[in-house]
Amino acid sequence: MKFFKIFLATLLAMVVGTVLSWVLCLMIFVGMAGTMGQTTKAVITPQTIVKIDFAENISEAPTKNPMAGFDYTTMTMPKNTHLLKVLQSVEAAKGDERVKGIYLNFTGMGSITTGAMEELRAALLDFKTSGKFVVAYNETYSQGAYYLASVADKIYLHPEGGFSWVGMAFPSLFFKGALDKLGLHAEVFRPTSCKYKSAVEPYIRKNMSPENRAQMQTLVNDMWSVLVGSIAESRNLDAKELMSMADRLDVTQPEDALKHKLVDGLIYADEMDAKFAEYGVEKGADGKYNIISLGEYMTLAPVLPKFGAPAVGIVYAEGQVFDGAGEDDNIYSVNVSETLRKAREDKSIKAVVFRVNSPGGSALASDVIWREVELLRKEKPVIVSMGSYAASGGYYISAGADAIIADKLTLTGSIGVFGMLLEGEDMLKNRLGISTDVVKSGSSADFGTNVMGIGVRKFTEAERKVFIRSVDKVYDTFTSRVSVGRNLPMDKVLDIAQGRVWSGTRAVSLGLADANGGLREAIAVAVDKAGIADNFRVTEVLEDLSPMAQVMQSLNMKVKSYFLDNETMEAVEYYNSLKREVAREGIQAYCPYAFSLGY
């Protein structure tokens, strides 16, 4: 009788769970349909102003998840676009006689990566060569927002708004103390020469090593110099004085920004109408200016390819590098290899731009992708365009290209590898009272045995030697790939490798990249090498993923967020991120650092 009660209760739970799941799915798709069914009332008139407000998320690659960011509270889809579409639309607006200018007003809740921000800024500079205006207004300016806005002809700020100008910093978290309290020990294996390979430091130190501090200070200085130099040039200011102003905290209030000529006026948003009139824009019959968002302009003035023209294919490598196949927004060796193969076999594609935005990951997966790049390069030119970062494994998969174009703010290099496993014998025995025992076929049969990334016993010296031999071998392979791919002497590669991270500007001087620039510059190099500069089209070569698998994967993530508040979700995401790091298997070519300018 008890069995049947349990059985019936379980059956009822399954039925109820299934019904609730279908109801939730129905609500989601109704919300999607409602969102997709909304039509914009915007139109492009001869007096149109295009507004960049970050109502859309601007990523460096198309998302592979069609429901990424779905809001379960409002049952609406977010507006998402990616860099190529943004650049193409800004270029189209430049030549569109109906567009009078661009208005920068960062009021939206969307996001943008560092690489995309740098390339959007360059596109706006190019837009200005048409003689059209770019004007900016904001209630507050972060340093990232101001870096982008500084491209404008005029910059305005709310009289009671905010302005941040303090410099760049790179804080790091270290978990060694917490691991000690838990009785966990991080076993780290990295080549002796990889003294800058700092991905493991949070688990074995309580502060930065001298080598890591030196590389990060150089990187911060390089990136700060790019920001300050760009702003100084656009605003006709002295770069050294701008840096001193940040050190002295001279600019914290709107009147400070006006005094130091960082903005051109302190006005309210409604007063921008007078500024548009100064640029000769006329109001419509309704007495209002026709201001449409960048997303609306993309919809109303889509960039159409030149059908029949030879193509430049864009292949994306976005996220961390993992072995095998996967369907989230990361790089999986099987998926990316198949996509590169598809570009190689497509006879209409005459050159490929490989857009890499990755901190790396699995060394094995990186080599699998590297091989596909090599095969592709034998048949058509391959140009790498580096985004916000292309470091460690991200550099590994880039090294074999015909040319590498990096943004100035790109974080790259980190040519090095490591292996790590948390050893928890003391924690299990002394903190939890758990002991282990084993039956094995030989003395080494339990070599590397772990549970959820935690080793259940200490390594022997013989086992450590095996690990060290493995990381040394992979490091030798990695550096040889760079030496051959970049046509650099091995001595020089070993000198600039060592796991050290470099900025995009310094990468060019070291020979790790060929030029500074973005996606547009990479496409220009690709068509030149393919001999199709006079007539070409750009096509994106995307991964073939199951739409249903994408939806289900998204539901799995978003259902959790529906029941948790934002603070709890942040903690959960941080925990999951930490768990992924310590549970990585195999040798890693991974660089955990990334800069965010914000906006």
Structure characterization notes:
This protein is of the alpha/beta class and 599 residues long. The protein folds into two domains: 48-165 and 251-300, 2-enoyl-CoA Hydratase, Chain A, domain 1, CATH 3.90.226; 184-206 and 306-546 and 586-593, Alpha-Beta Complex (2-enoyl-CoA Hydratase, Chain A, domain 1), CATH 3.90.226. Helices cover 44% and strands 19% of the residues. The chain has 21 helices and 24 strands. Helix 2 (83-95) packs parallel to helix 3, helix 3 (114-128) packs parallel to helix 4 and helix 12 runs parallel beside helix 13 (363-377).
The CATH architecture of the largest domain can be named as Alpha-Beta Complex
**Helix segment count?**
21
CATH overall fold name of the largest domain? 2-enoyl-CoA Hydratase, Chain A, domain 1
Radius of gyration: 26 Å
Uncertain stretches of 5 or more adjacent residues: 1-5, 29-39, 556-567
C-alpha termini separation: 64 Å
Main sheet: strands, sense, barrel = 8 strands, mixed
Count of distinct structural domains: 2
Helix content: 40-55%
Shape: globular
The CATH class label of the largest domain is Alpha Beta
Percent in strands: 15-25%
Structural class: alpha/beta
Mean residue pLDDT: 86
Q: Say how many strands there are.
A: 24
CATH H level of the largest domain: which superfamily? 2-enoyl-CoA Hydratase, Chain A, domain 1
Question: Would you summarize the structure shown here?
Answer:
With 599 residues, the chain is of the alpha/beta class. 44% of the residues lie in helices and 19% in strands. The protein contains 21 helices and 24 strands.
